Amino acid sequence: MTVSKDSENERPPAVRQLRLVVEAEDYEAALAFYRDALGLPEQAAFSGGDGARVVILDAGQATLEIANPAQKRMIDDVEVGRQVAPKIRVAFEVDDTRAATDRLVSAGAEQVAPPTVTPWQSLNARFDAPAGLHITVFEELSTLEERESLDGFGTEERS
Length: 159
Description:
Layout: H1 5-10, H2 27-37, E1 42-47, E2 53-57, H3 69-79, E3 90-93, H4 97-106, E4 110-117, E5 122-129, E6 133-140, H5 144-148
Parallel strand pairs: 3-6
Antiparallel strand pairs: 1-2, 4-5, 5-6
């Protein structure tokens, strides 16, 4: 999907960063998984009294994907073959879905679905991951311009 350059220039962005905060019962395991296995670089870390700890991992560009129930069901059907995702699923774009799948399974993720080519031309794999997250890793197989020519692509503004 593309955003009209005109709409970008009309209003300044009100949000500068998306930060997803996740409570992890096993902090060390979650840190090892997301930082070391998935490869999210550490941006900052803080600690406080009573053992309080937090690390901020850089996930590159953030987007918020809003899907209606029919779209959520369709994505689960395409990627997994059944309904599995909770209301929130976190997706990470990677360079190589197959290699990421091997690393994440070795690091303790439970593979829900193997790498699958989607109708929107990405290679997606699903996992139940540390800190109770249901995640997707995906690799884009074609450019945004190529995907825009597929049925169902566009923007809400131009629908």
